[in-house]
Amino acid sequence: MELESICVFCGANPGVRPEYRAAAEAFGRRVADEGLTLVYGGGNVGLMGAVADAALAAGGRVKGVIPGFLKDKEVAHGGLSELIVTESMHQRKAQMAAHSDAFVALPGGFGTFEELFEMVTWSQLHLHKKPVALLNLNGFYDPLMALIDKGITEGFIREDNRGLVTAHPDIDDLFAALRTYHHRAADRWLPTVAG
């Protein structure tokens, strides 16, 4: 798959383990080294700030998207290639999606999960055909993947749609998956009901 930009979702907090920040920095550097634009939430704190700073330090282009009401809370990054300020969270996600060819979630909290699953849902609905992947650092996303499998087992997610989000233990594996991704969402996301 041809990539020009990658959207990253990640925590506005740094997490308790230093390897989270190290992975965010490594990811930002890799995006820059690949000549891609990093699209992210526009903040200068936590893993968001770390990934942006690393991409910028490596000579990369970084586009931030932040709603006006979060500019001060998340301390909007002042050194980006471009900062887009939106009126709402909904507009933020729409802008991030419009400017990205792929979506990657690093470790994070509620906001990261919400952004991730909106992109997975949009893929399921054929609103985009872009890859959605997780950097599954130290098994961070294992419980989430188990929850998806539970949703399949219990009949809430079609087995055909299992591949709409993939988990990868390291950055090399993740980038290989992004470049070879082929969208294969089922035409129907609801199971066929007999009768």
Short description:
This protein is α/β, with parallel strands linked by helices.
Characteristic key phrases:
Cytokinin riboside 5'-monophosphate phosphoribohydrolase, LOG, 6 helices, cytokinin biosynthesis, single chain, LOG_fam, 195 residues, Rossmann fold
Structure description:
With 195 residues, the protein is of the alpha/beta class. 38% of the residues lie in helices and 16% in strands. The protein has six helices and seven strands. The mean pLDDT is 93.
Note the topology.
Layout: E1 5-9, H1 18-33, E2 37-40, H2 46-57, E3 61-67, E4 82-86, H3 89-98, E5 103-105, H4 110-124, E6 132-135, H5 142-153, E7 166-168, H6 171-180
Parallel strand pairs: 1-2, 1-5, 2-3, 3-4, 5-6, 6-7
Helix pairs in contact: 1-2
